């Protein structure tokens, strides 16, 4: 079992841990602002093409989007439990909860690929590639373009999150996370929760009428 | 210094609360509400879920004011950006009101 080394700028481990966590919150704030730009695009175009957006939402793949919502909520629960396990000094439980979270993240991505395949077949593609026969309006084109942009950027974040979780799974099995020193685990789980929070807002805006 | 800690029971209750709010959102979407009411309710429920995730799962309950202020400021900036842009677009007096007519497209659909 290893303990992280103390940086010389910190007087004790607790200060180092809380500084790492604060730094992570600042990064999450910046990620929120990144997605804010995409949500602003959505808001602007929905204000201009309200009816066409609703038509696009009605046409969207509600089943897959909703499955993904519940999957991410479950994954947030399991990744939070990994930190709970770290506080109790149970490395195998940490690994177990991280493994379940990774499986749920991969399931999310698989369902996303399934969805994109459906949209590809129908012609609900972004920008100039759009050729969905049922909704031939410019507003619907805008809706699906924003859909691809926001869910695509989100899926990239989910992929990065899964890779981070896999890395942390390896470190948990080597005993790196102890009850007094697990800020790095907490940082990774904070990133995963943010991915969930983004989908919590994307789901009603893109799938619920 | 003793700090508040999220307990196991709080994790479980938060998770159940998230599932309930998600299900309520889903059921409301079948209620054929008007667009404005539907979007407002969706965003309120999403905000509620986000508060639960941030306060309990992300341990904001345990964090000092500095970490909480980061999120408060970020959320305020997001809300400002989205609301002002939507208001700008909604109150334009261009003729026609939108850049191009509904039925045609610059992509030769």
Describe this protein's structure.
The complex is a heterodimer of chains A (209) and B (109). Helix content of chain A is 79%, strand content 0%. With 209 residues, chain A is mainly α. In chain A, helix 1 (13-48) packs antiparallel against helix 5, helix 4 runs antiparallel to helix 5 (138-173) and helix 5 runs antiparallel to helix 6 (183-207). The model of chain A has no long low-confidence stretch (mean pLDDT 93). The N and C termini of chain B lie far apart (65 Å). With 109 residues, chain B is an all-alpha fold. The longest helix of chain B is centred in the C-terminal third of the chain and has 26 residues, at 65-90. Chain B has helices at residues 8-28, 35-57, 65-90. The model of chain B has no long low-confidence stretch (mean pLDDT 85). At the A-B interface, helix 1, helix 2, helix 3, helix 5 and helix 6 of A face helix 1, helix 2 and helix 3 of B.
